[in-house]
Write a structure and sequence with these properties.
Blueprint: H1 2-21, H2 56-59, H3 63-75, H4 77-98, E1 103-114, H5 120-128, E2 144-158, H6 163-229, H7 235-269, H8 300-303, H9 305-326, E3 331-342, E4 354-363, H10 369-438, H11 443-477
Antiparallel strand pairs: 1-2, 2-3, 3-4
């Protein structure tokens, strides 16, 4: 008997050594060094507190715009989808936590067995029924033996190497990443609504410019017609002035169509059907702060939601790699059960039918090692991809801020020069009209002056709008708007 125990122990020991020897050590995943973010923006005037720290309700002073953003945050389809992604990520975390606990199943089962006459069970059952030591309740049904079970069965994997722990950490990181993804959508949504709002204001102002120039051109046309009647102008001059007026009137309808398109685009972001957008035309005439403080670039790591999301995704892939590596190592599983077991239904509730047991096993993959290794390589590739996405998000965020700062600075200078250009051209139109009436200028010079001032006013209007949009985009690029 002692020899048999030693022999069994030796067999188990040899088998364990064989299993452990089959566990191949995987090479660790090594990512490149992260490129350092520059210490400061060249054009920034200060490195203290940036505009992105301002809550968006305070950043936008227009109450109508604030109301539109509130509506978008409540009804935007993309934001609602992002919320469901967060709920899905929470469910995955709960599932990962549940993997640490044993599964317990209530079982009520029945079955039958017909053992062969030349098997141990067949011979044993047949012989037992002839034993004088058993009563009629212990008589085994023959030749078909039923089996009834009522009780609990459990399965519990012991997390020896951290596979379940790392899976849980990966799920938790992705939950945080999904929240950062929602914040990034909020940031982009706030910027898109504000940009669309200022675009509408610019189109409204453009419509006023067109209508004002239509009046000027109509007055010029009336003067030419009078001059033609007195013989001081030709029919060609009248036709040219009339054509110029038609051309400007056509701009009015194209601008109205642009307004409809922008309103519909904004209504889509607001999660509602097309309708008019309430707006304050005086907002476009407000002034920007003289100093735009971007803050230090390092704060992008803790401010921009997309950068934080990429960082959390990278962290999750590291846990995935650790879990994939642990999956190749032996796993310990414990399978207990407790219940009532009998081969006759009327004996199932008898106290003598109580049965229990437990099985513990250490298993290690042998034939599917290639599959597990492929899973590890896949997790490693995903980690490398996540690293490059994180690096990409840092470069992109810094580039966007640097571009935005220069854009605001250059657009301001453009606006100042365009304002002076419009003033000169408006004076030129008045001078051209006077000279034409006095006979010192041709009608072509008047028409050219009218075209020039209209085009310049369009460009000034767009430049003024672009300055505000550039500030909004800088606010978004710095991670503002999601608070």
């Amino acid at each position: 008997m002692i020899y048999n125990y030693k022999r069994s122990f030796n067999c188990i020991l040899v088998a364990s050594i064989f299993v452990m020897a089959g566990c191949k050590a995987y090479q660790p995943v090594v990512t490149p060094a992260l490129k350092n973010v520059p210490d400061s923006f060249v054009i920034a005037t200060s490195d203290t507190v940036g505009i992105a720290d301002v809550q968006w309700r305070n950043f936008f002073a227009d109450s109508l715009l604030v109301s539109l953003i509130d509506t978008a945050l409540l009804n935007n389809p993309d934001l609602q989808i992002a919320m469901q992604r967060i709920e899905a990520a929470k469910a995955i975390v709960r599932r990962a936590k549940g993997a640490f606990l044993p599964s317990v199943n209530a079982v009520a089962s029945t079955g039958i067995d017909k053992f062969g006459n030349y098997t141990m069970n067949g011979v044993g059952n047949f012989d037992t029924n002839f034993s004088e030591n058993i009563d009629k309740d212990r008589t085994i049904p023959y030749p078909v033996t039923p089996d009834f079970f009522l009780g609990l069965r459990s399965n519990w994997e012991i997390d020896l190497w951290g596979k379940l722990k790392n899976s849980k950490k990966a799920a938790a990181s992705r939950l945080l990443a999904s929240e950062k993804g929602r914040q990034f959508i909020v940031t982009s949504l706030v910027a898109d609504i504000a940009s669309g709002y200022y675009n509408l204001l610019a189109l409204d102002n453009q419509l006023k410019i067109i209508q004002r120039n239509i009046k000027y051109q109509q007055d010029a046309l009336d003067i030419v017609r009078v001059m033609k009647e007195t013989g001081r102008a030709t029919q060609l001059a009248v036709q040219q002035f009339q054509a110029q007026l038609y051309n400007t009137q056509s701009f009015e309808y194209s601008t109205k169509q642009e307004i409809v398109q922008v309103e519909n685009s904004m209504n889509y972001l607001l999660g509602r059907y097309p309708q008019s957008i309430a707006r304050d035309s005086n907002t476009l005439n407000s002034t920007l702060p003289s100093i735009i403080n971007a803050g230090i670039p390092a704060t992008l790591l803790t401010r921009r939601p997309d950068v934080q999301q990429a960082s959390l995704e990278l962290e999750a892939t590291k846990f995935d790699v650790a879990a994939a590596k642990a999956a190749s190592l032996p796993s310990l599983t414990i399978t207990p059960y407790l219940g009532l077991n009998a081969f006759k239904a009327n004996l199932l509730l008898n106290t003598g039918s109580v049965a229990y047991g437990i099985i513990g096993g250490l298993t290690a993959p042998l034939l599917n090692k290639k599959e597990l290794y492929a899973s590890y390589k896949l997790a490693g590739a995903n980690q490398q991809e996540a690293f490059y996405r994180f690096q990409q998000s840092l470069i992109n965020s810094f580039t966007e801020v640097h571009t935005g700062l220069n854009d605001i600075e250059n657009k301001r200078h453009m606006q100042q020069l365009k304002s002076k250009e419009v003033e000169e051209l408006r004076s030129g139109v008045s001078s051209a009209n006077d000279l034409y009436v006095a006979g010192y200028a041709s009608y072509l010079e008047v028409i050219t002056a009218q075209k020039s001032v209209l085009q310049a006013e369009f460009e000034l209007n767009d430049t003024r709008k672009d300055v505000f949009v550039a500030l909004i985009q800088l606010y978004r690029a710095l991670g503002g708007g999601w608070q």
